[in-house]
Design goal:
about 40% helix, binds 1,3,4-trihydroxy-5-OXO-cyclohexanecarboxylic acid
Length: about 150
Amino acid sequence: MAMKIWVVNGPNLGLLGKREPAIYGAASLQEIMALLAQRAAALGVELHNFQSDVEGELVQYIGRAIGAADGLIINPAAYTHTSVALRDAIAATALPCVEVHLSNIFKREEFRHQSLTAPVCLGTIGGFGTFSYVLALEALVEHLRQRASGCESR
Ligand code: DQA
């Protein structure tokens, strides 16, 4: 059965392409997800994606991953820095999760240096624009495959 990975995108990411292109690039979220879907197909992975600007909707979507997804990729966007609810939702799934950022949050304003969600994730990838998502997918698939074969690297 194909590995199922759910991709969660938080607030304002629906505006990618128009939103601060010097920071976030010219690609729309739809274009990024299409690229990711291509990579997922090549890896034999079933991908689902969801975007919301509403914290509670993101929490509910993450909760639905229990028993349905094998792993999560999340760009919590601004909620990275504020949301205990999203952190608890990720932890509640007990699923391996990779946090993604288009920008390098550590190079930016100080309030972006803290992530409340990163400590409940397997790892974080940021600073590579669209390619951050591709790297996150590859890292998560590799982790899940190693776990399935019983030779987890961590
Ligand atoms: C972001 C970084 C966050 O600080 C910001 O609030 C976002 C996008 C990124 O992908 O670089 O909305 O998560």
